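Open question from group meeting: does this chain pack into something compact, or does most of it stay loose? Before anyone orders reagents, we agreed to write out a predicted structure and look at it together. Recording both the input and the output here so the notebook holds the full record.
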Amino acid sequence: MKRKFLTFAAAALAFGTLSAGEVLFEETFADAESTAKNWGQAGAAAFSADGFENGGLRIANDNPKGARLLPIRIDAAKVRGKKLKVTSMVRGENVSKPEKSYLGVKAMIYYKAASGDRQWIEHKPKKDGTFGWEEVVTQADIPADAEDVSFQVGLQESSGTVWFDDIKAEIVE
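Structure tokens returned:
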């Protein structure tokens, strides 16, 4: 079923821009093979069998000054001038409180525009410590001249372990 959905989504992306309600991607981390294929390697990031529903993406960072960030690219041509919404399930274990409020657990949209504008839009509120599964939502208005767009998950300048699951990116306006 997941492969059929991904095939359909890829076909939809190949035929022009998306409109409100259309899904760009959906990741359930059902197995280690698809997790590695879609998300690649990031040091301490790996498929985990203890996800929200099935598997999940587990990212550990033992260096409170280091970062473990994993991006998935989004075709900028499909989201220019649109509002992008990404929802994901997140849980954390022994996540240290970072020195700055914009560091720590990351579920963020990044874009770079032709004008030179670069933005990192994060979910709020940010959490630290140990917390159970929670839905986080990140939204961004993507500029009409966007050249590079991605969604990134992980830990930045914060130690601990964080899990991500059921990530869904869609156009909302």
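Observations to bring back to the group:
The CA atoms of residues 66 and 157 lie 5 Å apart.
The two ends are 27 Å apart (CA to CA).
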